Amino acid sequence: MRIALLVHLLGAIIWIGGMFFAYVALRPAAARLLEPPQRLPLWREALGRFFTWVWVSIAALFTTGFHMLADAYGVKAVPLYVLAMAAIASAMTLIFVYVYFIPFKALSAAVGGSDWRAGGRALNTIRRLVATNLLLGFATLVVAVIGGLLA
Ligand code: HEM
């Protein structure tokens, strides 16, 4: 159970921390220092690497989450905060899957064809959806920790 929780928290830290770094640190720095022909390929490379880890984190969060569920509650009623955690995490996962297969693929294609206008549009969509997922990620943490305290 403790090992599952450790892996669970590692998944949450990598996913939410990575989004925080991308949004709060890399985004303003890249926008200030780089023009689209340098900035968009940088995002394509950086996000491509980060997204691989997001897939791993999602797999870890769901596997350990359901493992802990079965272990701690079995057939007993699952507390509302755990259901809420799983529900928000599922919404985050759907948003991520959309980002990966639609705007991120569009960004990759735009960078491949040096189409900076289309690349900028795709990156803008990614930026908005990552901001949404970052807020949902914070909400999941609040639900998990405060809900756990109150339960
Ligand atoms: C972004 C996604 C998620 C985040 C940030 C997150 C965060 C957390 C945190 C911080 C805890 C520790 C709570 C504590 O010990 O006070 C926790 C525990 C737990 N999480 Fe998640 N979680 C996520 C996704 C999921 C998913 C998808 C499931 C699937 C069912 C899940 C099931 C659980 C369970 C069963 C526990 C142990 C609850 C308990 O008995 O205290 N989590 N999670």
Summarize the helices and strands and which ones pair or pack:
Blueprint (H helix, E strand, L loop, with lengths): L1 H32 L2 H38 L6 H22 L1 H10 L3 H35 L1
Helix pairs in contact: 1-2, 1-5, 2-3, 2-4, 2-5, 3-4, 3-5, 4-5
This protein binds protoporphyrin IX containing FE.
How would you explain this protein's 3D organization?
By secondary structure, the protein is an all-alpha fold. The chain has one domain. It contains five helices and no strands. It is elongated and about 55 Å long. Bound molecules: protoporphyrin IX containing FE. The site of protoporphyrin IX containing FE has 21 residues, from helix 1, helix 2, helix 3 and helix 5.
List keywords for this structure.
mainly alpha, 5 helices, binds protoporphyrin IX containing FE, 0% strand, 151 residues
Distance between the termini: 18 Å
The helix-strand sequence is HHHHH
Major sheet, described briefly? none
Tally of discrete structural domains? 1
For the secondary structure, the number of strands is: 0
